[in-house]
Amino acid sequence: MSTNLVNPDTADDQELVDRFLSKNRAFLGPDPAIQRNHHVAARSLHEEQVLSAGVDSNLYAEIRSGLRAALDETFKIAEMTVASPAAQCADMSTGYFTAAGDLSLASTRGVAGFTVSLHYPIRFIRKYFEADDTVGIHEGDGFLLNDAHYGGIHSPDQHLFMPIFHDGEIVSWCVCAMHEGEIGARVPGGMGPMIESPWDEGLRGSPIKMVENYALKTDLVTFFQNSCREPQTMLADLKARLAACCRMERRGKEHIARYGIDSIVGFLRSNVEFMRDEGRRRIAELPDGTVRTQFYIDDTMREPALLKVMYCFTVKGDKVIVDLRGSSPELFNRPINSLLSTQVLGVAITLAHHIWPDMPCAQAIIDCFEFITDPGSIADCSDQVPVALCIQPMFKIMTAAELAFAKLYFGAPKKYGKTKAGWFNQPAAIIYGGVTQHQDSCGNMCGDLNGMAGGAKCDEDGEHSIAPCFGANVDIGESEDAEEKLPFIYAISKRIWPGNCGFGKFRGGAAYEYGLMRYGEQPFGFQTFTGGSYFPSTFGLYGGYACPTYGTVRVRGKNLFNVLKETPELFEASMASIMNDRLIEGAEYSSHSMAVAFELYPEGELFMTSQGGGGGYGDVLDRDPEMVIKDLEEGLIRAETASDLYGVVYDAETYAIDEAETAKRRTEILKGRLAQGISWDEFMATRVNPEPPPAVPFFGRWNNSEELYCGPFGKALPSELPPIIMPDPKDVEIQQLKSQLAALQTLS
Amino acid sequence: MKRIAVDIGGTFTDCFVSWGEQFIQTKALTSHHNLALGFNDALDQACEILTIDRRQLLQSVDSVRYATTLGTNALIERKGPKVGVLITTGFESTIPISRGRGYCDGLSDEQARDMSRAKRPDPLVPISRIRSVKQRMDYRGKILMDLDEADVREKLKQLVDAGVQALVVTLINSVENPEHELRIQEIFEEEFPSSMLGAIPMVLSHQVVGRKGEYVRSSSAIVDAFLHSTMYFAMSALEQNLRENGYTRPMLLVHNSGGMAQLNSTDALKTLHSGPVAGIHAAGQLSLQGDIQNIVCGDMGGTSFDIGLITDGGTKHYDFNPVVDRWRVSLPMVHLVTLGAGGGSIASYDTIFNTVRVGPQSAGSDPGPACYDRGGMNPTVTDADLLLGYLDAENYAKGAIPLNTRRSYQALEDICDEMDISELDAALLIKSMADSEMAAGLVRELNGGGYKASDFVFLAYGGNGPLHACGIADKAGIKKILAPPYSSVFSACGGAGLDQMHIHEKNVSLGFYNKHTRALYSEYSAFNRLVESLEEKGRADLLRQGFREEDIQYSLELDMRYGIQKMEVSIELENRRLKKPQEVLAAIEYMNTDFAKRYGSEIVSPESGVWVSTVRVVSRVDLGTVKFSDLRPPTERLSPPEPVTYRECYFNGHSGAIRTPIYGPDALSKGVEISGPAIVNPGETTYLVEPGWRYVAAAQGAVWFICENDTLEQ
């Protein structure tokens, strides 16, 4: 390792200094040289020797088929044997990597995004542990990771890596990666609004050798179990990951025995290069240009705010520049900051699932992308801030990339995916925690998060709650199974509600609400951590509407099971009916943003939340009136939406459309739009303010300001940002109450 | 034994007649407008061989068994009644949401991962025909909210007014307590008596499925209701045809559970995929009678490659949440995996990896491969097979489809241009890729179950099975292949050997080992009462069909899992009653062993608790089976007959053309041994013996392919 800290006179001196420094490192923290580099590693000597002799792409295709079968086999093993509810719903992935850590092949099913960001820890392990006598890398070793600062997405995910050796040389790595959930954080499930520091995030597993000689180390396993709320789940999942890795390693070695080591090394590397080159070729097909998008995260998770996230995609030749400058500064004590590596991952996932769906999901496909950021911002945060909910800004860049490439491909001769509006993009899940009816301690989430709605397509409507924006073929699960294991009932189970989709010529998919009613007397509670209550989560395309806003609501202070039994007529399984009618006397009804901190709930209290819809495509006035009426009949929209927004005139009883009147009303709406139009100059003069509204806690660039606004903390240049420490909402509330009290006392 | 078994497929009606020592196989075109016509045609062909008339044949047989794709086709074509659904309040969107992943069910992995085109299939029940009713049970069956009967009557009226022709009632946790589902049925009968004209059938979810999972139970009940009338009328017409021709016994329908039952004891849902399942049953019989320990079945047709497993000398494997067409359902069905790989699979240039990709798109039979000369422009596996010399252009399908080689060459042009290779190299690549994909599918199935491919015999059947068998086996590491006897009607042959069988199961939550109390399960009486009640149901089914109680055999299966894991393992409890801790411990030990074998010893986790989630009783009556001859490779070998001709053929791993002998039907004589490369084409099937393989003809037209470096002994 060389350094610029000193300037010795000779090479020998340099070596001495390097040796001293490497032996006297206080902490092997995340290495920026690794973490900030998503590019494919250079060929190793072995890879160069093999590939310089020629690439047998047909042999490699046969190897690919065999190794993919092995990955699918091991994925199935892990999926069926894990205990984590999310992983049971396929929130996981398996993969083979090159010796240097580049992802070569991932399992067909599941969330390939997990494996896309795992080149970082492999490089870390090789750089720092391989030559370290106290650690080393040996056959049968397995390294566990869950700290996103070393790779991966966020701390509730856990990944196990196993090297594959041949003749004493590491020739590949295999990985089983998944969302574990509970990891002993301040709140159950490893994620939540109340995580206010990296030290609230629970176990911060830098790469740690958890497996030796193909066996889990009992002392470490016990430590991990002892540090979290779900010791049984932890054990079961460590075993599942190990079983999957052992099987992958064995299959890898069988392939080496069958095809020879050079063929396997050549395959693994060439697969990476094929993907890298194809990604570059596809970018080169696009016309040069820039697409800009901005999103707002509307909640810090403890208080409402407008946190700007800027995205500017520029295609130039066979390169893409992603400029994230102008995004909100990082928040020191809120969990929604994201690392640069997370943003990079978001782009790769979107391309693989939405734009180039025929391409495998790997970091190599965005090798030709470069990222520009303001370090210390919400899109490229420091190591000092919590990142447990980094998926908030990550999901935003996913939609940004989805929409940017929809536009970049507008005039392109060849499209690989179908053009569509934005997929819903928020983790709208209820995280639970406490003690179950089976006396198990727990803290996790069900598959309800996975029911995100699809955006409207260029030629048809989007699909109702169907799959998370980050992975295909992922399960939502069965409510009956969840009720069997956990102390609640689904008072509302995944029910689509009217108006919860982006309108347009083609509407986005609608999304469901759901409500959990506490059942049993054990201590047990809920929380949510989603945005989108004030500002739309995802956008429409070419005139289509964005996703409507939504919220979390609660009914407390009464045991609603008594209501179900004695006065069932007072209960309607609909969030709107419950909250609008408020029929249950004595109950406390409250509505909230989608970020509600963890609390325990006694039996019979009701906690309800919702997924958001997909964005719409095209002008609402171009929607076929028959399709509008079908939406109305299916309860996807309200009557006012059909008539006022879509401009459809129909008989309220028979739903028969009056075509002539519809055409007339639509013409009137068009005229009304024109009447509202103003010139560009007038718009700039009347609608553009030089500063953000004072009442809005705004974070990020305003107009073209060089400085970033920091909410109540003023503004500063990106290089001079102050640490933004938000006050505890309870302290704020106490202060307000004290002020009121003081005012009252003054009055009296 | 005198018996008739029929497999009514989409194109052909296959017929297998067991007539004492004589076995007859015939085929006729399926007559979709009246299935009886195709059946009679196939039967008449058999009668001609036996020199008897149809009535004589039907009066002599002990049973007529049907396996049919009728239900599958009706699902695919969406031909069925308007179904309406009543579901628990708050769960109205359960069916359209389909667990999210429902859009992927029935798709290839490649199609499933394309989120930009993600689209659910057209629903069997649209949102507008779903109504909720106010009621609620908890997970143990305790009533949390009483059934609102006025609400039920109103919703029933709404659905009937909307014109529904069949009704499904699917209430949450009804498998724990069916009281409300049954009460709704009573109310429906009160409001709309079944004696009235236009009576509507009602299906209760708990009567179709005994397991939890509200979506899969609902979709099962919906599929059942959707197929009910179609199947009932078609099968009744067939039964009527039998009656008119002198058959007096009950007609039997093959079930996808691997058994069969009378029409009046058959849910429509149980008939889906019954044909391929009967084929796997036949493989099981081969395994038992031929002492072949492990078989992996590969049925390669024009559009798909169906894989099934027989292990440990005849054990069939089951799926409990199989996908039928595009719907995930809940029922115990013989495990069957379908890959999109067949003769019609389309090959294309893979721009990412600079190679050829095969499938999952298929040219099907219309327009079919380019060489069919029916307008197909895409290159397919069959085109590659033709160019490599494996197929006889003049006599393909007994001459019914003349093949145009020029079209195959043209279809390959794009691939050749992209890859800068010759047409023959492209064809070799397509053959290799197709074989690799199918081999990977076989290996995935075997490895996933904890098995090694080299321990298995590959049973290759279907139109393209024996043609690609060596290539697939080579890549899968399998050393022995058996092309079975009666391979062209193999599924019908399987139907002839089925038992009368019924499966009844109950969702339970029994802690065989409770980690909190550290106690073993001890409520033996309750457990035994449950088993007795399930046996009683099976007994009632079989007694109703005229069997004697003493002929009924039962087996008891438990689905078990560790702690909070998802994976369940089915084990058989031989004693069928629990009396002491040793039996509980034995069940746990059996589970541990099975788990370790499948997933590795790392994963065995009894310490996290052991739970029984389903108790299942299989009730059956043994009705005898088809006795195959000794199918082992004969010890006495015959020299190959004189080749009919020679052709220039091309093989992977061999440069240039090889002059390959082509043999006719006489090569099927028992004991004939031929070293590859060679082609045997007796008319209906092409047997391709690739270099490195030997062909050995066994009894009854069965053929073995033996890898040259392997022995013949089983």
TrEMBL record, chain A:
Organism domain of life: Bacteria
Chain ranges of the Hydantoinase B/oxoprolinase domain: 63-619
PANTHER family: 5-OXOPROLINASE RELATED, HYPOTHETICAL 5-OXOPROLINASE (EUROFUNG)-RELATED
Name of protein: Hydantoinase B/oxoprolinase family protein
Natural source organism: Zhongshania aquimaris
Automatic annotation (TrEMBL), chain B:
Domain (Acetophenone carboxylase-like C-terminal) ranges: 526-694
Superkingdom in the source lineage: Bacteria
UniProt cross-references to InterPro entries, sorted A to Z: ACX-like_C (IPR049517), Hydant_A_N (IPR008040), Hydantoinase_A (IPR002821), Oxoprolinase-like (IPR045079)
Every Hydantoinase A/oxoprolinase domain range: 217-496
Endpoints of the signal sequence: none
Pfam family, one: Hydantoinase_A
Domain Hydantoinase/oxoprolinase N-terminal span(s) in chain numbering: 3-191
Protein name per Swiss-Prot or TrEMBL: Hydantoinase/oxoprolinase family protein
Organism from which the protein derives: Zhongshania aquimaris
